[in-house]
Amino acid sequence: MPARSPFRVSAPLVLCVLFLTAGSGACSYIFVDGPPEKHRQLPYFTCTTSRAWPVVDTVLGAAYAIDAVGFASLASRQSGSSTGGTEVALIAGGAAVLFAASAVSGYGKASACREATEELQVRLTRMQPAPGFGFGQQGVPPYQPPAPYDPWVTPPPHSVGAPPSAPPGAGAPTPESNPPPAPKGEAPGQER
Asked: Within a 10 A sphere around the Cβ of 19, how many other Cβ atoms?
């Protein structure tokens, strides 16, 4: 019987690693978005500034690394039995490497997003409105608050009991300005 090497890679091992990584995620690869390529030319963009997903990847990677070390030491102590500790250690080690790579990628994308967002904020604060854009320029007068109303100095506008004021220069009506109405059947301005 040929001797079995402890680090033999088999098809089930590869399938198991792929299933583990696809099922568990590597959160930063999935959920963390860096800034767009041409973010300096864009007026607005969104990306992920939070480092929460890379922290999750770091914790999961550390847990898988601890599992890999534990299963490797278990496999070395029980080298005569067929427990499969070596294969499990390899799978846990592969998952630890995947999560560590995802965490590094996530930290890089999040810090690049923070820098790009700060650049965008600086760019937006330096922007001046173009002439004719916005209120208070070219044709639109700026807002002027109304003058304060003092009831002791000026009467209220359109008060209820006050008589309507006559326009300036208009006196009382005279008989010449208001001719008497014409009798029925005659047109105004015709004399008998």
From this structure: 11
Task: Give domain limits for the chain.
Answer: 11-126
CA dist., res. 75 & res. 107, Å (int): 34
Helices (DSSP H) in the chain: which residue ranges? 11-24, 27-31, 52-77, 85-126
d(CA 53, CA 106): 7
Tens-digit pLDDT profile for residues 111-162: 999 999 999 988 888 776 555 555 545 555 667 777 777 777 776 666 565 5
- The one-letter amino acid at 80: G
Q: Residue 22: count other Cβ atoms within 10 Å of its Cβ.
A: 9
On whether the CB atoms of residues 27 and 56 are closer than 8 A, the answer is yes
Name the region of 9 (left: φ>0; alpha: ψ -120 to 50; beta: rest).
beta
Chain centre to alpha carbon of residue 46: 6
Alpha-carbon distance of 192 to 190, in angstroms, equals 7
Distance (Å, rounded) from C-alpha 174 to C-alpha 94? Answer: 110
pTM over 0.70, yes/no: no
